[in-house]
Amino acid sequence: MTSSEQPAVVYVSLGSNIEPEQHLRQAVQLLRRHCNLLALSAVYRTAPQGYTQQADFLNMAVKLETTLSPSEFKQQVISQIEQQLGRMRDPQNRNAPRTIDLDISLWNNEVLDYGEKPWHIPDPDITRFAHVIVPLAEIAPDYIHPETGQTLAEIARQLDTSAIERQPLDIASGRG
């Protein structure tokens, strides 16, 4: 990183339901190699969305800094970590079990589309799913969502969080 490059503050949502404790720990370790990790949420157990005939997920969020663009970060960091941890994409079932899933949820205070899909920031799932908003609101409760104008804590209070359960895991240290 050169001194002229201002790092972006990025929030990434992580989820796994195949050996989830191991894969979340490995994903956090790999993120640390590529970025400056600023904060980690607790880990939350949640029921699967869409395709429900599978194991529960463990979800969390991280706050980090990077000098990469969103597209570069997706290709050089997220895709590489998912590949390294054995993420398999089932074209017939986008909600299939997975070793790891990493999604850019927020990028600075920006609203943008990036990549070939294209993906949207802020991630629309922030306002739809407790497993995304609860970990984000834990590490950045006062962050103002750039599209809704609400804080992440306010958004979290609006969703049904009864099925999300905080887990006694310490992903950062490898204990739990």
How would you sum up this structure, described in words?
With 176 residues, the chain is α+β, with helices and mostly antiparallel strands. The chain has one domain (8-167): 2-Layer Sandwich (Alpha-Beta Plaits). Helices cover 27% and strands 25% of the residues. The chain has helices at residues 20-34, 70-84, 130-139, 152-158; strands spanning 8-16, 36-40, 43-46, 57-66, 101-107, 112-114, 119-121, 165-167. Strands 1, 2, 3, 4, 5 and 8 form a six-stranded antiparallel beta sheet that branches. Strands 6-7 form a two-stranded antiparallel sheet. Helix 1 crosses helix 2 (70-84) and helix 3 (130-139) runs antiparallel to helix 4 (152-158). It is globular and about 45 Å long. The relative contact order is 0.21. The mean pLDDT is 91.
Write the layout of secondary structure elements.
Blueprint: E1 8-16, H1 20-34, E2 36-40, E3 43-46, E4 57-66, H2 70-84, E5 101-107, E6 112-114, E7 119-121, H3 130-139, H4 152-158, E8 165-167
Antiparallel strand pairs: 1-4, 1-5, 2-4, 3-4, 3-8, 6-7
Helix pairs in contact: 1-2, 3-4
In short:
The model has no long low-confidence stretch (mean pLDDT 91). 27% of the residues lie in helices and 25% in strands. The protein is of the alpha+beta class and 176 residues long.
List its traits:
176 residues; alpha+beta; Alpha-Beta Plaits; 6-stranded antiparallel sheet; two-stranded antiparallel ribbon; 25% strand
